[in-house]
Amino acid sequence: MAVMARLDALAPHKEAVRRGLVLVLSPRVGSRSSRAAMRTVDCIWRACGDTATDFNHYTKRLMLLSVLGKTLVCWLGDSSEDHAATRRFLHRRLVEVTHMGKLAGRAGALGRLAEAPWRAAAMVRRRVVGDA
User: Fold this and answer.
1) Residue 78 backbone class (left: φ over 0; alpha: ψ -120 to 50; beta: rest)
2) pLDDT, tens digit, for every residue of 60-91?
3) pLDDT at position 116 over 70
4) In 3D, which of 56, 50, 47, 90 has the Cα closest to residue 70?
5) Whose C-alpha in 32, 83, 105, 127 is 20 to 30 A from the C-alpha of 22?
6) Across the chain, which distance is largest between two alpha carbons, in Å?
7) Is 74 helix (H, G, I), strand (E, B) or coil?
8) Which 8-state DSSP code applies to residue 126?
9) Predicted model pTM
């Protein structure tokens, strides 16, 4: 799990991360922080072998950004041995995101099914009328 690997690497600096988070979330550096966060999740996805270049590229990264942010907050308050509570929290978030992805895929299929008659009508119209 790349997210936990990142948090494990930061563990010796937990208090610095906590203090730094206050600065990172300030409006003054918000845009730079957003870019840095997106670079982080992009690196995680690429390290996992992701090569998506379509709309999926962005949705995956935004979902991971959400999971990473929530997990970071959990991790900062976690005093359990080996951050076991954070690991369980992260696992639950990943299950939720996976479930959301499956639901979105089904919704996309339903949307395409609902569009099918309109696409067919447009195709017939183009063939009959001859316009693009």
Assistant:
1) beta
2) 898 899 999 999 999 999 999 999 999 999 99
3) no
4) 90
5) 83
6) 71
7) helix
8) H
9) 0.71
